[in-house]
Amino acid sequence: MLDLILRHCNLPDGRTDIDIGIAAGRIAAVEPALAAHAADEIDAAGHLVTPPFVDAHFHMDATLSYGLPRVNQSGTLLEGIALWGELKPMLTQDALVERALAYCDWAVARGLLAIRSHVDVCDPRLLAVEALLHVRERVRPYLDLQLVAFPQDGVLRAPGALDNLKRALDMGVDVVGGIPHFERTMAQGAESVRLLCELAADRGLRVDMHCDESDDPLSRHIETLASETVRLGLQGRVAGSHLTSMHSMDNYYVSKLIPLMRDAGVAAIANPLINITLQGRHDTYPRRRGMTRVPELLAAGVPVAFGHDCVMDPWYSLGSGDMLEVAHMGLHVAQMTGQEAMRACFAAVTAMPAQILGLDGYGVAPGCRADLVLLQARDPVEAIRLRATRLRVLRAGKTIASMPPAMAALDLPGRPAQVDFLRRGGGQ
Asked: Residues with Cβ < 8 Å from 162, sequence gap 6 or more?
C-alpha cells in the first residue's frame, strides 16, 4: 500500500500517461498503469507533473522592500546599489525575517521549493545574515534555502568585507560569493577571485560569483574564475552569475572563453528579467539585450540556469516569484524558440539549477524526494506559454499549496461557455 499515487501524468522528459507512486515522502515507482493501491490517488488527467522549480540566483535580504527608503526613479543598476546603501542602516532583523518569510510563501504557492539567495555581508552587524539563517531553519520543512556570502560593495573595496564574509561562513552560510567587476580596478577584481576561490577550497564550499555584470566587453573576470577553478580543483562547484559582458564581447574571444568554462566545469546563471532591464542603459540604438550567450553556452555543454534575481526591491519593482515568467523572458531574449531550446528554458528553472545547487534526491524517479508540482499544462513548452497554474504543490508527498484551474467563462452567442487555454492549433 502506497501513501499516494498520481495517475495519468505527463513528465518533462516527454513520457505521457505515467503513474507516480509515493511512500514515506519518496517516489517509489514511476511507470504506466501502476498496479498498486494507495491511501490517496490524484488524477493528473494528462497534465504535466514536474520536480519543483529552483531559483539559482536571488536576493532575499532585499526582497519586498520596494519603496524603502524611496523608489528607484531611474530603474538603473547603479541607483539600485545606491538605494541599497541607504536602506542598509535602516534594516531590522524582524523586518528582514518578515519579508523573507512572506516571499517564501509566494515561492511555495508557485511551486518554487529551492532558492539560492545571496546575502550582503558588507554590513558589519551581519543583520541580514542572522535573519536569513533564521529563515532558512524556519522554512526547512518545505523549502530548501541555500545562502551565499555576498560582499555587495566589493570584498577588497569595502572596509572589513573579507572579515565579515569569513564570519558569515563561520555562522553557517553555505556558499562563497563575490563581485569582482565592482572592485576598484581590474587587477583587484582578479585578486578578489583568487582570494575567494582559495577560501572556498580551504573550507570545502561552493562558489557563486556575480561576475562581469557589465556592458564592458573587457570585463573578463569569468576567465579568472574558470582558471582558479581548475587550479584549486573546484570543478563542478563553481558558478558565474550574470556574465552579461559576454553579450558585448567579440566572437573570437568568446570562442576561447566558452571552452575554458566548459573544461573548468563552471556553470553559468543568467537572470533574464533583470539582465534585460538593467543592461544596455548607456546605449541609444541599436540597444544591446544584455543577457549572456545562453544558446552558445548550452551548445558547448556548459550548465546554464536562470534566476529570478530580484522581486520588488531597490533594483526591480516587479516580479512575483514565478520561475515560468523567468523562463518565458529567457526564451524570448535568447531567441530560443526551437522545440528543444524551449524545453531547455524549462530545464533552466528546474533540473539545471538543481544540479548547480547540488540538491539531493531531485527528480522524478524511484528514490527521489516526492517534491512535485502539478501544472495546468501538458508539456514544458505549454507551461511556459501559459505561465501555467500550479494546480498542486507537493513536499515529501504532502500537498502544501494548491490553486483552482484557470478558466474563463464566456457569455457570447454561439460560442462555448468556457475558454480552453490549453487548446492548440490545428483543431487539437
From this structure: 151, 155, 156, 195
Annotated catalytic residue: which of 31, 137, 198, 213? 213
The reply to whether 296 belongs to the active site is no
Same domain, 319 and 403: no
Q: What is the largest CA-CA distance in the chain?
A: 71
**226 within some domain:** yes
Q: Angle at Cα 246 formed by Cα 242 and Cα 249, nearest 5°?
A: 160
For residue 376, give its domain range. Answer: 2-51+363-409
Q: What are phi and psi of 211, to 5 degrees?
A: -135, 120
Q: pLDDT digits over 237-295, tens only?
A: 999 999 999 999 999 999 999 999 999 999 999 999 999 999 999 999 999 999 999 99
3-state SS class at 224: helix
Question: In this structure, what CATH number is given to the domain that contains residue 389?
Answer: 2.30.40.10
Judge if 33 and 75 occupy the same domain.
no
Amino acid 279 reads Q
Domain boundary among 332, 357, 382: 357
Q: 141 in a domain, yes or no?
A: yes
Q: Is the pLDDT of residue 425 over 60?
A: no
Residue 427 resides in a domain: no
- Contact of 212 with 242, CB cutoff 8 Å: yes
Burial class of residue 73 (count of CB atoms within 10 Å of its CB; 0-12, 13-18, 19+): exposed
Q: pTM of this prediction?
A: 0.96
Here the cell at position 91 is 534594516
Cis peptide before 286 (omega within 30 of 0): yes
